[in-house]
Amino acid sequence: CWAFKGHQGQVVIRLPARVYLTAITVQHITKDASPSGTVNSAPKDIAVFVSLLGTSVDADREEETFLGMFSYNVEKDPIQTFPLKNMLLPRAFSQVKIIVKSNWGNPWYTCIYRVKVHGKMENQKASTNGQD
Q: SUN domain: from which residue to which, for each copy (predicted)?
């Protein structure tokens, strides 16, 4: 897992191309796969932002756009996909910021096993055959 200290943390994911974003998938392990038999290190409340850095006239000024707040549920499937509420943004982005606001009770660390970013690559927007 990618672990960070405490119950809060963040990661910025740089995408290989500019993407029109549609959803985020978060994955953690199951209780059965966990060496401790618990999944209290799983993220619980997650916020998603995109950065507008370099897209404005003032390229040094960083602006962020909020795309949604989601709750990862450890009682459901370990792979959970969350549609982004602000899918109609008229531009593609090259990085996504994931902020974990809380976990399921572990006071020492929080683990993320996998994050997937879904959308259409900028050069595939007009295509109906593009893959997520």
A: 1-122
